[in-house]
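note to self: dont lose this again. the chain is below, predicted strucutre after it. 270 aa total, dont forget to put it in the shared folder this time
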Amino acid sequence: MTKRRIGTVLKYVFLFAMSFLSIFPLVWMAISATNRSVDVVSGRLLPGTYLVENFRNLASTHRIGLAMWNSFRNAVTATIASLVVCSLAGYGFEIYHDKGKDFLMRLLLLSMMIPFAAIMIPLFMMVGRMGLLNTTTAFVLPTVSTAFLIFLFRQSARYFPQDVIEAARLEGMSELGIFFRMYIPIMRSTYVTAGIITFMNAWNSYLWPLIIMQSKESIVMPLLISNLIAGYVTDYGMVMLGVTLSVLPTVIIFLLLQNSFAEGILSSVR
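---
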């Protein structure tokens, strides 16, 4: 066997090992959702017959449907708001750039170094005084404009054909018309990438909902899963089922849109 073949074999072995390590937690989680708590604790790796019973116990003790709906509503609202605001900002920073806007962009990028925990209390006080606790609006406000998404759209706008803009202006199209009718369709892969990132972050958000979602009617999936392990006795089969249900939407969305996600990332860093 030549050195080239040995290198190829080692490469595939390494890729297989990394893939297995990445997928195994998800597979084990799904298998555990079908087993009793004692089987999960003992490390059973075979599917069981307790999926229906675990779901029945979960649905009878926790409002799983309400939590899923609240998480979905919050994540979709945050995603739409972020895409509109951040894409407009990123487009404006690049198409109408000058020294002042470049300086402001640097300041925005510096804001990425500030941890969310440092601004969480001031944000909580602000939404509390505005009477927005336990609302989707309070959930969306901190994420409606992020430096990362603005930078992502700014980078993609650099490769937006200037000839298209000039031709549209000569045809009498307004600047907003160019953005909505020309920029968005051409840069749809960037929107898919930003949408997936925002949706996943919003769906999995735990710390901010823990602070602002103080009523039982506003519970979201991360808080519900936290409640599952907060008691004196933990049913790990039910916990794993709750985690599996929580992970499914993001996994499905990513698998359906993974090609556009990769294309959007590449178009922003080329």
